[in-house]
Automatic annotation (TrEMBL):
This is Oxidoreductase. Keywords: 2Fe-2S, Flavoprotein, Iron, Iron-sulfur, Metal-binding, Oxidoreductase. The keyword NADP does not apply. Gene3D superfamilies: 3.10.20.30, Nucleotide-binding domain of ferredoxin-NADP reductase (FNR) module, Translation factors. It comes from Nocardioides aromaticivorans. Residues 1-23 are annotated as: Disordered.
Length: 336
């Protein structure tokens, strides 16, 4: 669920940074009311959520958790206007092979319902750049839409390549049409797969590339950007990257520094589950290393990063996702 710069596969050893004043995983819990629910395209609905008071600030790329019921929290990118401090907008794709969250939203969630919302958080922020190349696949248009608006408002040079299964399945086409030839819409059923070579074939020093969509698209974009300057590519994943099947978990010790608790993390058991069993509170959501909810800081030890959120800079600063990541050293000290 950043979300994120691309994973580089490097393991870093951290020394103990100064503990943050506030644990990164603590966030505001908001109470919002579903004021509007409307279809955007085949299989996609937009939710307009109204706050009781002024909302916290957020920027393009941010997402929130919707707490839809007991043990049913789902992450959705914000696609509205950050300047609007009374409403949040998200778009939800019905996933036929999902875990029930999208089906609940589409079939049961009714206008007037009060929802608890956690966040916003942002592991996919829009950096300042003179030029942007945006690439979206399917529901990946949701964070990109807010970025397009921000780039346009800033007077930046930008272009969007947007693909989907069919034109009928692609959300926000009417709004995007207002940007003219800055936007290229390419439905797969009529136009084939996205022509990535046409927009990524020549590396550029002045361009930030932002991409969100299915894993096959993200992998292809990474390959096309392999020769681009470091830091050019920014990705957000909706699903975790595959773990090397030859990866072997080993047992290690973890110290939860704030809580004064030390415990053993067995092979096959997550740090997050051990923390819960030991009474150490950590906010959790996806438990797959995608959403960034459980983020904490490594104070000592050598982490084995397995998340799909953090970039190299985040990891160098000690950021860590205990839901999926482990330790290369025998002992890990976390700011929990």
């Amino acid at each position: 669920m950043s979300h994120e710069q691309p994973l580089r596969g490097a393991t870093v050893t951290t020394t103990a940074p100064a503990p943050p004043a506030v644990q990164p995983s603590t966030e505001l819990n908001l109470t919002l009311t579903l004021e509007e629910k409307r279809p955007l395209s085949e299989g996609v609905v937009e939710l307009v959520l109204k706050a009781r008071s002024t909302l916290p600030p957020w920027g393009p790329g941010a997402h929130v958790d919707l707490l839809l019921g007991p043990d049913l929290a789902r992450q959705y990118s914000l696609c509205g206007d950050p300047a609007d401090r009374r409403y949040l907008r998200v778009a939800v794709l019905r996933e036929t092979d999902g875990r029930g969250g999208s089906a609940y939203v589409h079939d049961e969630l009714a206008v007037g319902t009060t929802l608890q919302v956690r966040g916003p958080r942002n592991h996919f922020p829009l950096v300042e750049a003179p030029r942007y190349q945006f690439i979206a696949g399917g529901i990946g248009i949701t964070p990109i839409l807010a970025m397009v608006r921000a780039a346009e408002a800033a007077g930046a040079d930008w272009h969007l390549l947007y693909g989907g299964r069919s034109r009928a399945s692609m959300a926000y086409l009417a709004e995007l049409a207002s940007y003219g030839d800055r936007v290229r819409v390419q439905p797969a059923d009529t136009d084939g797969l996205l022509d990535l070579a046409s927009v990524l074939g020549t590396p550029r020093e002045d361009t930030a590339v932002y991409c969100c969509g299915p894993e096959v698209l993200l992998d292809a974009v990474e390959q096309h950007c392999a020769s681009w300057p470091a830091g050019s590519l920014h990705l957000e994943r909706f699903a975790p990257r595959a773990v090397d099947p030859d990866t072997v978990d080993t047992e290690f010790e973890v110290e939860f520094a704030r809580s004064g608790v030390t415990a053993t993390v067995p092979a096959g058991v997550s740090i997050l589950d051990v923390a819960t069993a030991e009474g150490v509170f950590v906010v959790r959501s996806c438990s797959e290393g995608v959403c960034g909810t459980c983020e904490t800081v490594v104070l000592d030890g050598e982490p084995d990063h397995r998340d799909s959120v953090l970039g190299d800079d985040d990891r160098a600063e000690g950021c860590f996702m205990p839901c999926v990541s482990r330790a290369c050293s025998d002992r890990l000290v976390l700011d929990l």
